[in-house]
Design goal:
- The chain is an alpha/beta fold.
- It has one domain.
- It contains 5 helices and 5 strands.
- Strands 1-4-3-2-5 form a 5-stranded mixed beta sheet.
Length: about 140
Amino acid sequence: MLLSEFLQARNQSIINQPVESGKNNIVGTEVNSPKVNEKGNSFADELRTMLSGKSQVQFSNHAIKRLESREIDVTENDALERLNKGVELAAQKGCGQSLILVDGTAYIVSVANNKVITTVSQADLKENVFTNIDSTVIV
């Protein structure tokens, strides 16, 4: 299943922009090909497979890119289950936009839409300011 099919199944959209193999949209700039595991699956493939059945919360395209670029593994220490629990807690309190901390990883979540907007790894948390949030949940 392609990422676009996965997102479409979850009622999310993806912008399809053709990109030449080995290059991004900036002329002459090389991009790294996706890393693959021993099964030949990329991080995005593994993430998509893992999220397809276990997650109640949805991930925006931006959040998926951040998970991949920051090498955040939501399968460690039941992080995805705890993230879902954090979203449930925020929803029970009537929160709109929440910062949910799971093992030092920050997730900015639109509670009303049940969607992760972005993620920040523990290494990138230092000297960051989070704005436009109305709550913080630590799980």
